[in-house]
UniProtKB/TrEMBL annotation:
InterPro entries tied to this protein: LysR_HTH_N, LysR_subst-bd, WH-like_DNA-bd_sf, WH_DNA-bd_sf
UniProt feature coiled coil, ranges: none
Keyword Ribosomal protein: no
One Gene Ontology term of the molecular function aspect: transcription cis-regulatory region binding
CDD domains: PBP2_LTTR_substrate
Function in brief: Transcriptional regulator of the ttuABCDE tartrate utilization operon.
Keyword hit for Heme: no
Protein name: HTH-type transcriptional regulator TtuA
Assigned protein family: Belongs to the LysR transcriptional regulatory family.
Keyword annotations from UniProtKB, A to Z: DNA-binding, Transcription, Transcription regulation
Domain HTH lysR-type per the UniProt entry, residue ranges: 2-59
SUPFAM superfamilies, per the entry: Periplasmic binding protein-like II (SSF53850), Winged helix' DNA-binding domain (SSF46785)
Length: 300
């Protein structure tokens, strides 16, 4: 009888175009992957992959097997999620998260995932959205919460939330600001996200007018660092106010309400259309419920 594990192996080899990469994805060894494929080929009486060439290619019979394997594995996943006790769902998957979400609704999300799937383990990777997108396409992570929209055709995405971006500073800096013009703002360092991020690009575009002074931009991939620098009056942070709500409420930071306004950061959940995606879809459903909670709805 054809083994589901062997079918899953064939799918990942075809998608990643490598026995080694498939072994890493499935947390096993390359020899074990080769044994699974060899056993399946012996059982079917046909060759699934052409190993005679430098580049791994799938045979016509292999392509037929892929079609059936994808359907069978999807049906198995649907059955398990429809019938099985969710509290017994186990395994590990890798979640990539943009740091803005870490500072807002991620803790509530993780609590609900843990309550719903107590045996499901998450490996969380925090990075800028540009890197998360690449790691998702490279199969290094399974699911990502990042700035969208995503243009990659292989990625399935779901709108999650949006965060306004504003100029935030300490009361000390606010006291020295009169008009709030861009010329005046440029007297202080601007503290914002790392290069190749949407806020960084938007800040540079905002001051692209030759008539405006060129601001000093301090970029960092660590929001905690930017917040600390803003609290210490080292510059004006260009960040979502949602990540510093406690400091704003306590008066340690103030929103400068500078015009023109910067575009909101729109976050999506992104994952690949693999046969095991049903688990990811259910986890994303939890995320969409979390961002609808009253304490987060003002950020949408």
């Amino acid at each position: 009888m054809v083994d589901f594990k062997a079918l899953e192996t064939v799918l990942w080899i075809a998608q990643l175009e490598s026995f080694r990469a498939a072994a890493e994805k499935l947390n096993t060894t390359q020899p074990a992957i080769s044994v699974r494929v060899a056993q399946l080929e012996e059982e079917l009486g046909t060759q699934l992959f052409d190993r005679s060439r430098r580049t791994l290619t799938i045979t016509p019979a292999g392509r037929q097997v892929l079609t059936y394997a994808d359907r069978l594995l999807r049906l198995r996943a649907e059955m398990l999620h429809a019938v099985a006790d969710r509290t017994h769902l186990s395994g590990t998957f890798k979640l990539g998260v943009a740091e803005t979400i870490v500072h807002t609704w991620l803790p509530s999300f993780l609590e609900q995932v843990s309550n719903t799937y107590p045996k499901l383990a998450l490996e969380i990777e925090v990075d800028i959205s540009t890197n998360l997108r690449e790691r998702l396409l490279q199969q290094k992570i399974d699911l990502a919460f990042l700035v969208g929209p995503l243009s990659a055709p292989a990625v399935i995405q779901c709108q999650l939330c949006r965060f306004p971006v504003s100029f935030v500073a300490s009361p000390k800096i606010r006291a020295d600001i009169e008009s709030g013009s861009l010329d005046e703002i440029a007297r202080w360092p601007l503290l914002t996200f790392a290069r190749n991020t949407q806020p960084y690009v938007q800040v540079t575009e905002l001051f692209a007018d030759p008539a405006l002074p060129t601001p000093r931009i301090y970029a960092s991939s660590s929001l905690a660092t930017l917040i600390r620098m803003a609290l210490d009056s080292l510059g004006i942070a260009v960040i979502p106010p949602a990540i510093v709500t406690v400091d704003l409420a306590a008066g340690r930071l103030v929103d400068l309400n500078i015009s023109p306004k910067l575009p909101d950061l729109q976050f999506v959940a992104g994952w690949l259309g693999t046969p095991d995606r049903r688990t990811f879809e259910e986890v994303v459903e939890i995320a969409t419920r979390v961002v609808q909670q009253p304490e987060f709805r003002s950020d949408r």
